[in-house]
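Lecture notes, unit on protein representations.

Consider one protein chain, 312 amino acids long.
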Amino acid sequence: MNQAGISRREALRLLGAGVATCAASPLSNAWAAEPPQQKNMLTRAIPSSGEALPVIGLGTWQTFDVGPTPQVRAPLEEVLNAFVEGGAKVIDSSPMYGSSEEVVGDLVSKLGLRPKLFLATKVWTSGKSAGIEQMEASVRKLQANPLDLIEVHNLVDVETQLETLRDWKRAGRVRYLGITHYNAGGHEAVARVLASQAVDFVQINYSLGEREAERRILPLAQERGVAVIANRPFAAGDLFRRLRSKPLPAWASEIECTSWAQVLLKFIISHPAITCAIPGTAKAEHIRDNLQAGHGRLPDENLRARIIAEAT
């Protein structure tokens, strides 16, 4: 999902304070750097396969729900080009996001980017036949066969849809399967599925403003070997509103951040359970800023505590 509220441009103007960017420092064995052609974006391994994914991705809720004209789609082409040039891969969409799947599919095909991307979407309906129909439509709209990841959104008819997804995975129609929820009220149900079902991914809300996942979901995902995608990384814009009057602290330079957006994203990806965060944007300048969070040093526990204190 994408953040709402004050504009990102205004937030960056109000919050930004330049600090020098340094080379990436060594991290624990769980972290690795992408090959040079991927511009050294930090990566995290998918536990079920070992495949490495860059830690910053792209959400498409609202931002890619646009019409067919070249004028409205041109800025999104810039976003996708900047996204790939910055060494990122994971794009998350859904049939519930209006035209987003179709727009992503059309632009990715036009730009020839499919081999460089990890495309994820969701199924959100009840019944086996309805689920298959919805997933088939996603394959057509995203122009991706196989899809990299399909998740059961908000656990709707989760047993039925996971059964179909396992069939699709065996048949090579999807590479990974998972579950999602966007609200902390669903975390207990998510935990029950994680504890009882074999899934590759879980996508949940996690940010400096929504830390409930730290209690149960993130430790359980680590225990069960499940990759975690963090949605709502800016808490639907609440964090920008909260921080709009605060200058970027001097300690941001310790983790090579030049904007609050980068600090907020580094807080997320510094949790060892997190595989990828997916901020949404329709502006190339914002995606470039976001992607810088995937480079350089990450906050340790002491600095995480300082970030929490600064933002609360």
